[in-house]
Amino acid sequence: MKSIIKTFLTLSFTLLFSNAALSESHVIEMLNKSGNEMMVYSKKVLNVNVGDTVVWKATTKGHNVEFIKNGTPDGVAKFKSKMNVDVEYKFEIPGIYAYWCTPHKAMGMIGFVVVGGDKSNLDKINALRFVGKSKKLAPELIGQL
Ligand SMILES: [Cu+2]
Predict the structure, then answer these.
(1) CA distances for 61 relative to 12, 53, 112, 132, angstroms
(2) What pTM, to 2 d.p., does this model score?
(3) What's the 37 CA to ligand 1 centre distance in angstroms?
(4) Total structural domains within the chain
């Protein structure tokens, strides 16, 4: 009986930890200022695994997260968070996700998440139209994907 319990516990722990290793949580801060940059996400390019969650923290107010139209893999629903609050998103579909902060999209507040190392929608990402300061920044970031 004792050995059965021991086996059960060992198995439970193994499952628990392998699960934790499979799906991670990543944090990106939404900031008014970082070094000498204004209006930025703390990580502009992030690679995650399928099933991982990203939490965008409203470290400073006045920001949000909006997936750019045609800037996500096929089958991903429209996503636009409320202003001023922490927001999280679980990435289930592989591919490149391009997003921006709605009020600061022309100030370079853009970001990219690559899910599962899948860059099959890179052509669509390259075809996106960015505005203002983001016009120059976007190709630089896309080059890092
Ligand atoms: Cu913003």
Answers:
(1) 41, 21, 21, 22
(2) 0.86
(3) 12
(4) 1
- CATH number of the domain enclosing 37: 2.60.40.420
CA of 18 to the centre of ligand 1 (A): 36
Q: Choose the weakest-confidence range: 4-8, 62-66, 96-100, 117-121.
A: 4-8
The answer to whether residue 65 sits within a structural domain is yes
Residue 14: Cβ within 10 Å count: 10
How high is the mean pLDDT of the chain? Answer: 91
Which one, of 55, 110, 115, lies nearest residue 88 by Cα? 55
Q: Determine the Cα–Cα distance for residues 102 and 41; give it in Å rounded to an integer.
A: 13
- Compute the distance from residue 34 Cα to the ligand 1 centre, in Å: 12
* 126 CA distance to ligand 1 middle (Å): 22
Whether 9 shows a pLDDT value over 70: the answer reads no
Residue 104 CA to ligand 1 center (angstroms) comes to 5
Q: Which domain holds residue 89?
A: 23-143
Residue 8 inside a domain? The answer is: no
| Residue 30 counted as domain residue | yes
Assess if residue 15 is contained within a domain.
no
